[in-house]
Amino acid sequence: MITPSAAPARAVPALGSLAFLWLKRGGLSPANQTRLRLATCGHLAMAALTFVAVTQINDTLYFGPPINDPARVDALAWAWFGVNALRIGATAFATVKLIDFYLNIRGTSARYPA
Fold it and tell me: Are 74 and 15 contacting, i.e. CB atoms less than 8 angstroms apart?
């Protein structure tokens, strides 16, 4: 079973990779620096939303004492759904920007593949 504290630990390798890219960004073009900046913002948004989902919603909804109020359970479930939908969107955005960044560095175009 995945505990609430295990979920944020999965983001550490990705954040470490982005930190490494930030340290080595000196030779990047302004367009690639923008791609890297956008990917980092998307990933940080995902990490922040993960923190909210784990500490505010999951602890109450799944790991806390039983909730006897169906309206509160319904509200928490919809909040969980909304936060996770935003997390998936932020992760997709960051992934697309990182792939675009990678392809641009390699000299190929994501828009016009060979």
Answer: no
